[in-house]
Amino acid sequence: MKSCQKSQSEQICCLKLLFIQVVNIMKGITENSQQQNLKILSERQLSNRINIQKEQKIKEFKKKLKMQPNQIENQNRYIIDVRRIHQELSNGQNTACKYCGLYDSKYHCGFEANLLLPDIYMELSNKGFFRSGKYFWKQNPYLSCCKEYAIRMNVLQFQISHHQKKTFQKFASIMHNEIKQQISKKNINNNDIDDSLKNKSNSHNLDNKNKGKESKNEHANIQENQKQNYQIKQIKDLLNQLVLKLFIGEEKGFKKVDYDFKVFLTQGKSKESDYYSNVLQIIYIQNKEALESVDKLIEKYQNQVLDFLHKECSEYAYSIHPVQKLILFKLKENQNEQLLKKNKEKEQLQQNIKSIGQKNENGQQKQMKQVNEKKQLIPKNEMQKYVNEDGSIVFDEFSPKYIKIGDLEISLEENQFDQEIYQIHCDYFKSVHQREPQSVQKFINDKCIQIIEPQIIQSKVNSNMQLYTGTFFFKYKLKGEIIAVSHVDILPEMFMSQYFFYKPELKQSFKLGINSALIEIEYVKRMQKFFPQFLYFNFVQFIPRTTKMNYKADFQKQQILCPETCKWVDLTLEMKKQLYENPADNPRLASKEESIQEDHDFSDMNIEQYLYENFMMYINERYLMIQDLIPESQPQILINLACLLQAMGKKIFNSLTFGY
Question: Rounded to an integer, what distance in angstroms lies between the CA atom of residue 553 and that of residue 311?
Fold first, then answer.
């Protein structure tokens, strides 16, 4: 009995223990399930919240798409391809800057566009973006060698200089061919018999002389080329020795320096040197880890470099350019020749001064008669001023698409490919830039595409006047023959003179660069009367200390874009001197008190987070955020977009449509 009772009590105890365990297990399960449920709920809420945000973004995105004409029907027209955006990179491939000769020294970010609305293009140009064909870029002025500044002019504030007046007066007089013909007729009548006799007797002799001169010139050119090649080789050998002595060896802290520096022949009239080399920049590029900058390299080794050159070769005078960091070589015999020339010129001047007093009165009277005769030949109605007192220019005819000045006709036409225009462009490249011209396809891609949505704006002042926006050619025709072409972008508020080229043989006689700018400024002034917002003439790009761009800064009352504040500031005489004489490492042009434009102020902003939360693309008829892309592609796209956002500002960035 007792054993039976014990067994029953034990069974009851076991059952109680089992029950407690089951209860505990159940409690644990419920707690875990509750935690899991809470976790699932929170994840669902988070994903729901993200989906809701995404739906809101998609709605906003669709609204933005609808604001752009034909966006849905032809979605690729306005979309910026995210694959064609790049971060700040040097121009790579070990290429030299065409302005200063430095290697791998251009840093910028950019993108390609198929088509942009005029307002967006205008905003980009006001942020310092430049265009070449479909490609838009903005320079990083803190890292690049030659600073590229955006420059513009309010045409109502333009003040024409005395030199510009004189230049255009002469140009317009030549264009009014009646004056030229009448003067030449009188000269022909006076000298007809003498000239005809002289020409017959001397024509044979002239032909023989010309042939002799041509052969002599060819021989002289060959000799000059051989001399230059020898001098370049001599300088390069000298620099190789210099590199071996000063910069090769582990104890000097340099890596092995490759001999890929170059020696260039200095071109142009104003020569500080006969030859120059970029050897110092190459040494710096190959040893960036050991050196902070080219300036530090020069500061440390300048005296040693110059001492070595003076000892090893006495035929040249040597110096280091303070801004461009190039080693300059001047032939001493050339310096002596220049001194002799100056002395001869002084002697000639003194002789001329003496001879002036010995001139007889009859000779002076003859000269005065000839001048008066020429003046009388010009009719009184033709003795007009082609530049008015207020600086405005006189046109014979004017309309939005046509200008006439005597024999010169200027027409605004579509930028379609024309073989004659392409040939002028090739001749211009060879003669003026001394470079190989663009291929036909490159020329078409750069000059013959329509990047701006063409629009016709009707004037509220005069219903007959229309402003044509888009990309055009301004064709300059003299007696039906094209002599020059201006590649221009016309926007609702500005006229952008992208590129101007002309027949090289007309360079000296017509000064087409200055005169075309004066004509185009006058075009904007006249159109502004009918379109009040059409105010600015834009020279597009200005690079200080570049000879071919110096004339741009001579047009008074201009504004230049400060790269740091993204605000336009007046281009004063003091600022010009600063840009020419001492281009600072800090490219800020605005005063210290001037704040950065709010649209470009990213100091209190996490750009990466901003892009993850706000950026959206339209890809293959789907709306995607950065986190929807393949993980491997996200970092690079994020870097490129962050660079572009900082370059163009939040307003324009958010108004563009990205995808592919």
Answer: 43
pLDDT, position 214: 58
Q: What is the pLDDT of residues 132-180, one digit of tens each?
A: 899 998 988 777 777 888 999 999 999 898 888 988 988 888 888 644 4
User: How far is it, in rounded angstroms, from Cα 326 to Cα 294?
Assistant: 10
Name the domain count of the chain. Answer: 1
pLDDT over 80 at 291, yes or no: no
Asked whether residue 123 is domain-assigned, the answer is no
Cβ(164)–Cβ(514) below 8 Å: yes
**Phi and psi torsions of 493, nearest 5°:** -120, -5
Indicate whether 168 belongs to any domain.
Answer: no
CA–CA separation, 535 and 425 (whole Å): 30
Q: Which residues of 279-313 are buried (b: 16+ CB within 10 A; e: fewer)?
A: bbbbbbbbbeeebeebeebbeebeeebeebbeeee
Mind listing the pLDDT tens digit for each residue in 347-393?
665 555 455 444 444 544 554 554 455 444 444 444 467 888 888 89
The angle, 0 to 180 degrees and rounded to 10, between the axes of the packed helices 279-286 and 294-312 is: 130
Q: For helices 361-377 and 177-246, what crossing angle results, to 10°?
A: 110
Q: Which two tokens stand for residue 86?
A: 């790049």
Report which of 37, 34, 38 is spatially closest to residue 26, judged by C-alpha positions.
34
Range of the domain at 252: 223-334
List, in order, residues 6 or more apart from 626 with CB less than 8 Å away.
Answer: 611, 612, 615, 634, 637, 638, 641
List of residues 6+ apart from 596 with CB closer than 8 A = 564, 565, 566
pLDDT of residue 192: 46
